[in-house]
Amino acid sequence: MFALVAALVFAADRVTKMMVLRSVRPGTQIQVLPHVWITNTQNAGAAFGFAQGGSLLLPFIVASIVVVAGMIYYVATRSVTVTTGLVLGLIAGGAVGNGYDRVLRGSVTDFVALHFWPVFNLADAAITVGVLILVAGFALRPKTSDS
Predict the structure, then answer these.
(1) Residue 52 three-state SS
(2) Is residue 146 annotated as part of the catalytic site, yes or no?
(3) Is 71 part of a structural domain of the chain?
(4) How far is C-alpha 84 from the geometric centre of its chain's CA atoms?
(5) pLDDT in tens for each of the 147 residues of the chain?
(6) Number of folded domains in the chain?
(7) CA 41, CA 38: separation in Å to the nearest integer?
(8) What whole-number distance in Å separates Cα of residue 6 and Cα of residue 101?
(9) Is the distance from CB of 5 to CB of 24 less than 8 angstroms?
(10) In what order do the strands lie in the sheet with 29-33?
(11) Choosing from 13, 101, 124, 146, which is the catalytic residue?
(12) Residue 110 designated active-site
């Protein structure tokens, strides 16, 4: 499940970013739903436009590699549930998608604009959803007598 979800997130992220790069001029917005616009923004920082700055490019790339390698190792050395594979696949696919942009373009294409939240992309959304589910799973798991 991990590899399948990671590959699907990466592929969907690449396709959506390429569509935006080819069809939306930088600095313009196209309303696609009430309160949802598509734009073409290049982000040299972290998810949702945080920590802007070209000097952070290498640390973001290294962090992505370390996180994804750690998840691959974890999944390869343990018996993980389908849910765990799905959640880690969301995070890994998103990290690889944004990492790919950083390596090849020096920035990440963000395109979903809600006007009450920083502009983001599919990879950002996958990472965020994956992390939220992971945190909720830890917070809501039953307490055992040895913990």
Answers:
(1) coil
(2) no
(3) yes
(4) 17
(5) 999 999 999 999 999 999 999 999 998 999 999 999 999 999 876 555 555 555 566 777 888 899 999 999 999 999 999 999 999 999 999 999 999 998 898 889 999 999 899 999 999 999 999 999 999 988 888 777 665
(6) 1
(7) 10
(8) 16
(9) no
(10) 29-33, 36-43, 108-113
(11) 124
(12) yes
Distances in Å between the Cα of 4 and the Cα atoms of 86, 89, 145 are 8, 7, 35
CA-based nearest residue to 64, from 34, 108, 30: 108
Half-sphere exposure of 79 (CA within 13 A, CB side): 0
HEC states along 93-143?
A: HHHHHHHHHHHHHCCEEEEEECCCCCCECHHHHHHHHHHHHHHHHHHHCCC
The total of other beta-carbon atoms located within 10 Å of residue 105's CB is 13
Range of the domain at 68: 2-23+46-106+121-140
Q: Both tokens of residue 43?
A: 């982000």
In a domain, 114, yes or no: no
Write down the catalytic residue from 13, 101, 110, 146. Answer: 110
Whether residue 68 is contained in a domain is answered as yes
In a domain, 97, yes or no: yes
What CA–CA distance (Å, rounded) separates 99 from 135? Answer: 23
The alpha helices in 30-81, defined as continuous H runs, are: 57-77
